[in-house]
Design brief:
single chain, about 325 residues, alpha+beta, nine-stranded mixed β-sheet, 7 helices, about 25% helix, globular
Length: about 325
């Protein structure tokens, strides 16, 4: 849930050294003598940047020691983001309001609460993934969208293979980035996606593999995909029908720990999944989107980030899509 924080990092020399040692132990880091000094300097720079970001976010979000604190901004962008992201042609817009999801079969007596709702609590999102040091977020976002909308269409919630997209989609660029729209097109042309169990993710070290997909071995496919325009569109879909794939500016997310982001850039370099919202009508605190990332559960709020609504922060409403799912 969103909230305000009073945490401030200890930026004294002794404090930084102590935190760096604890970081190394917690995340199993081991460096040579030369690299130790290099990584400590990066760590120190990132801790100072974390302080700056907390000021920029008016103390509503915290930043600090996390799994990527020893990576420079450049290293992180090259391994976890898509610095050269290019939006492909915009898919057809929503012709009308998307039909509301039938949640009675999932034990809910009524539809989503208009003020507070998260699809991750409704059994239609898979566990948090970890893309590793591969710019494959676009494939994760597309896969997560299909997983959710296939479950909402009546299929069993199933982990699907984003590795199939990374390896076999020749329009996009594997670990060097891609686009959700062209990922959907690949899924359509392939007849669907295999399961994660049959075709697991192996590109986390930064290298895509050769295509190992046996034609016809699919579970779910994309029969259609549509764009969702602006935050009003995000709310319209998320408050009635299902999660949304969103591509965003995540350049300031590297060392996010929790709370509500209220300051962000607008140059898209990452794709994720919007799963819900808090206090949407401004009752009970800051109104925020709940967004599922693919950087593992040790990052952020157990793999999630909260982003304030109302000003298109991180360009969250600029490149958003949903799919119509069917059996493969």
């Amino acid at each position: 849930m969103p909230g305000s924080f009073c945490y401030r990092p200890d930026l004294t020399d002794a404090g930084l050294k102590n935190q760096f040692v604890h970081f190394m132990v917690k995340y199993g880091r081991s460096y040579s003598s030369e690299e130790f000094h290099q990584r400590f300097q990066i760590f120190s720079d990132n801790m100072h940047e974390s302080e700056r970001l907390m000021v920029a976010n008016n103390g509503s979000a915290t930043f600090g020691v996390g799994p990527f604190i020893d990576m420079s901004k450049e290293e992180f962008a090259q391994t976890h983001l898509m610095p050269n992201y290019k939006k492909s042609s915009t898919p057809a817009p929503l012709a009308s309001r998307v039909p509301a999801a039938d949640l009675t079969s999932r034990g809910f007596p009524r539809g989503p609460d208009p003020n507070n709702w998260d699809w991750s609590q409704a059994g239609v999102t898979t566990p948090i993934y970890n893309q590793g040091q591969c710019g494959s977020c676009w494939a994760f976002s597309a896969t997560e969208t299909l997983e959710s909308w296939y479950a909402l269409a009546g299929g069993q919630l199933t982990q699907l293979s984003m590795e199939q997209i990374v390896d076999c989609d020749t329009t996009d660029n594997g670990c060097n980035g891609g686009n959700t729209n062209t990922a959907y097109q690949y899924i359509q042309s392939a007849g669907g996606l295999d399961t994660y169990a049959n075709y697991p993710y192996t590109a986390g070290s930064g290298q895509a593999g050769s295509c190992q997909f046996p034609q016809g071995n699919t579970v779910a496919t994309v029969s259609n995909y549509q764009s969702v325009s602006g935050e009003s569109g995000l709310y319209s879909v998320c408050s009635a029908s299902g999660p949304v794939s969103v591509c965003v500016d995540a350049s300031s997310w590297q060392n996010y720990q929790g709370g509500v982001l209220t300051s962000c850039g607008s140059q898209i370099d990452h794709c994720v999944q919007l799963t819900g919202y808090y206090n949407y009508n401004g009752q009970g605190g800051t109104s925020a989107w709940n967004v599922r990332n693919s950087w593992g559960t040790t990052w952020g709020n157990s793999g999630y980030i909260q982003i304030a609504t109302g000003s298109d922060l991180c360009a969250i409403g600029d490149d958003a899509t949903i799919v119509t799912a069917a059996s493969g």
